[in-house]
């Protein structure tokens, strides 16, 4: 595609140009599509490059972007609507990059079925730089999920932690999936209270990994696999094989290194999981362990 201001330096510490960013997204668009197609996207834009302040954008006015970018209107709880951008064509990924998008964030549901997630996500957020804690939490949480036959794949966040993701049949509703994510996180934190926590406020976490189960609400978002992050070195959120957990840092795969991973598919075809019967099992284990989950409002907690 024709790139405007292709020579503009987007990552000043690394000399990466806008043209290179667009070319990168053209190269990974097909790999990103299973995670973005038909979803209400939130994008992180840096029109003047990452050396200047960027912003998150979820509303897509008519003049936004390209004809390749569709729109999906969602009512707000306090009135009005948000018109999210939606893509169904890989070429739209590069079109986003051409208007300064660096990072893509997507919800666990599609616009065709906003009530039934086809992904579940556990976001491991350790204290800054404590990749060792994120790795240990990843192993322990995976073990908890395995006990419920929830098969997970692993990815770097391109930032400070890792994400565990489970591919789902869209059978359980969003509330059930979120409660399963929360319940399994609570079980992990109860078994390893010095390692993991569900405390939303950073001041309450101490030197523990926050297991963020909140990514599972219909319009909550998480970083899309293969997205660049607006950080020095241009790290990328990439799929990993579980045997790479100890060798690849959360921000360890950089823009310049991604091509070397294209021949490896660390996420083989996994049969999507039906979670409709899992919530009762999780609830029973929580009850047996005498773990009570309080009502939660992320905006007041």
What does this structure look like?
It is a single chain. With 301 residues, this protein is α+β, with helices and mostly antiparallel strands. The protein folds into 2 domains: 1-106, DNA primase, PRIM domain, CATH 3.90.920; 113-284, DNA primase, PRIM domain, CATH 3.90.920. Helix content is 24%, strand content 20%. It is built from 5 helices and 14 strands. The strands form 4 sheets. A 6-stranded mixed sheet has the order 11-12-8-10-9-14, with helices on one face. A 4-stranded antiparallel sheet has the order 4-3-7-13, covered by helices on one side. A two-stranded antiparallel ribbon has the order 1-2. β5 and β6 form a beta hairpin. The mean pLDDT is 93.
Secondary structure layout plus pairing:
Blueprint: E1 9-11, E2 16-17, H1 18-36, E3 42-45, E4 55-57, E5 69-75, E6 81-87, H2 91-97, E7 101-106, E8 119-125, H3 131-147, E9 153-156, E10 162-167, H4 174-191, E11 196-197, E12 209-212, E13 222-223, E14 239-240, H5 278-288
Parallel strand pairs: 11-12
Antiparallel strand pairs: 1-2, 3-4, 3-7, 5-6, 7-13, 8-10, 8-12, 9-10, 9-14
Classification by helices and strands: alpha+beta
Residues in β-strands, percent: 15-25%
H-E order: EEHEEEEHEEHEEHEEEEH
CATH superfamily grouping of the largest domain: DNA primase, PRIM domain
- Total count of strands: 14
- Largest sheet properties: 6 strands, mixed
Tally of helical runs: 5
* CATH fold-level topology of the largest domain: DNA primase, PRIM domain
The CATH architecture name of the largest domain reads Alpha-Beta Complex
Overall pLDDT confidence: 93
Task: List low-pLDDT spans.
Answer: none
Radius of gyration: 19 Å
How far is the first residue's CA from the last residue's CA? Answer: 46 Å
Shape: globular
How many domains would you count in the coordinates? 2
């Amino acid at each position: 595609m024709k790139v405007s201001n292709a020579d503009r330096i987007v990552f000043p510490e690394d000399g990466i140009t806008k043209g290179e960013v667009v070319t990168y997204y053209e190269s990974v668009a097909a790999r990103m599509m299973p995670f973005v197609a038909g979803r209400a996207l939130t994008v992180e834009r840096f029109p003047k490059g990452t050396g200047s302040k960027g912003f998150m954008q979820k509303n897509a006015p008519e003049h936004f972007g390209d004809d390749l970018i569709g729109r999906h209107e969602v009512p707000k709880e306090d009135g009005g609507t948000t018109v999210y951008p939606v893509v169904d064509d890989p070429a739209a990924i590069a079109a986003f990059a051409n208007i300064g998008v660096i990072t893509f964030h997507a919800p666990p549901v599609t616009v065709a079925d906003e009530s039934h997630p086809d992904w579940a996500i556990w976001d491991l957020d350790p204290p800054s730089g404590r990749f060792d804690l994120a790795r240990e939490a990843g192993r322990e949480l995976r073990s908890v999920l395995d006990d419920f036959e929830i098969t997970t794949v692993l990815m770097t966040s391109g930032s400070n932690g890792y994400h565990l993701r489970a591919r789902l049949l869209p059978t359980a509703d969003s509330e059930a999936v979120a409660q399963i994510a929360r319940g399994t996180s609570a079980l992990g934190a109860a078994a390893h209270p010095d390692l993991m926590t569900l405390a939303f406020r950073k001041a309450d976490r101490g030197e523990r990994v926050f297991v963020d189960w909140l990514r599972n609400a219909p319009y909550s978002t998480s970083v899309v696999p293969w997205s660049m992050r607006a950080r020095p070195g241009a790290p990328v959120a990439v799929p990993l094989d579980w045997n790479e957990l100890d060798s690849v840092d959360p921000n360890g795969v950089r823009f310049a290194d991604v091509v070397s991973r294209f021949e490896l598919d660390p996420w083989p075809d996994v049969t999507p999981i039906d979670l409709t019967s899992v919530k009762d099992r999780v609830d029973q284990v929580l009850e047996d362990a005498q773990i009570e989950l309080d009502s939660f409002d992320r905006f007041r907690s």
